[in-house]
Every structure is written in C-alpha cells, then in structure tokens.
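Render this sequence as a predicted structure.
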Amino acid sequence: MAFTLVPTTVLAAGSDTTNEYEATAGETAYSTLKEALEAGGEVTLLKDVEVSEVIHITKDTTLDLGDFTITNNVTEGRPLNVTTDNFTVRADNGGMIIPETNTTSYGFIEAYVKNLVIEGGRYEGNTDNGTLFRFNSTASNINGADFRMNGVFAETNNQIFGVNGDTFNILNASVTNSELYAGTRALYFDVYDTTESSTISINSTTAVVQRGPVIEVAGGNTVLSDNDWTVTGDYTGGYTWARAAVGGEGGGMMFMRASAADGDVPSATTVPESELEQLSI
C-alpha cells in the first residue's frame, strides 16, 4: 500500500507563514499556490510567486492577492483555468504580471464560470495575440452569466477582457473605476439577448487603446457613464471602424451619458449629464 504526503499545515493562532508557504486555503497553509487553489474556498497569497504551469481550479474560489504578485511564466496558455460556478480575484497593491521573457503568453484567466469578479489590483504584460481575462460560454452559463471588474489597472498589447465560444443568451457585466490600456479593443461582449435581462455597464473608467474600438458589444443593452476614452490610432492596417471608440451590432441598445470618447473617427459624443441619449446599434 502506498501513501502520499500532502504538504499542508493547519495554522495555529499567530503562526508565521511568510517564508515557508505560498498560500492558505481557509486555515490550512500550502507549500504552493497551486495546491491552495485546487483546495478552493478562501485562498490568500502569502508572498510573490511565479507560476510556470496551468493551475486547474474546479471549486468555488476567492483568491486574495493582497499586496503580492503572481508572475506568469506559462507559455501558450493562461495560468488560471477555472471551471466552477464562482471565481473572484481580489487585490490591494498586488496583481499579476507577464514578464518580457514570456513572449507566448495568452493572458491570466481562462474562465468557464457563471460569475467572474476582478476586484482591484494591477494586471500587466504583453500576450501573443491573447486576452488577459477570457470568459467562455458553456452549457451551464450560456443562459445566465455575470462579470464584474472594479478598481482595476490593466495594461497589455492586445485585449483585456473578451468572451469566447457560442454567443451568450444572457450576460450581465459591469466595469467601474478602472484604468485600461490596450493595443486593440479593451473590452468585448457578445450576447443574443436584447432585452433588459442583459445589461453591460461601463462607469468611471479611463481607457486608452491604439486600435479601437475601446468597447465592442454585440446585442444586450449597454450603458456608458462618465468615462474618458481615447483611441490613438497608433497601429498598422485595420479598418476605419478601428479608429472608433465604441463599436456595436446585433440589435441591442446603447446609452451614453457625460462620457468623453476621442479618436480620429469617434463614434460616441458627449451628452449633458441631465440628458440620456438612446442609440440603436
């Protein structure tokens, strides 16, 4: 009979885990972040770590980065592959980075979830034509999914958030109080639903992209409020719409209020705060 030793420790009150362990899940300390994330639940990062292989997360998890950073050394993939209902990342001054030496990274999170939340933190680095946070439609979430991003700083050469797979039937999303810097469009949402069941709200967010649009939406109902967006046009090739700040299609509705959108061919205008203008897209 063979036995496998699992490198975990149940923490005593006042225990110092700074040097010995990378993370905790609940009250249990783990030698590696991978083991803590596989355990799931409330996971807290205890130090700066490097991740060189994909971590599969299959249980509802909240990952608290605090002031620490995950360095992504995973090539041709994303370090966090999440297949569960709920996944949240929280951070204060911490976050995730892709080092310049990793030239074939696709981003940070591959999500197959119903609810994805990114709360705070810095997420930086270039990808190989990838998306930092990719939200995939599945049989379990296509009829109702939710994405929330708040207080995030993100910078990359390509896309920051995008959906993938079959078009969502219902998708609610919000991006608030964030700073986004991207080489191409920063945000992409694709949803069949054109009723009030699906609302995409972008509020108090600064975005600068080289090739637009800043946001592209197919379907759904989009509300843009108090944003400051710039399309620099610093790219080679592409189409005229790539110099626009907002791109939309699919029969949904778009509302813009007191937001600024700049570009060579802007597709959004400043509207007085007291007035709400409705645009068919």
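Summary. The radius of gyration is 20 Å. Confidence is low (pLDDT under 50) at residues 1-6, 259-281.
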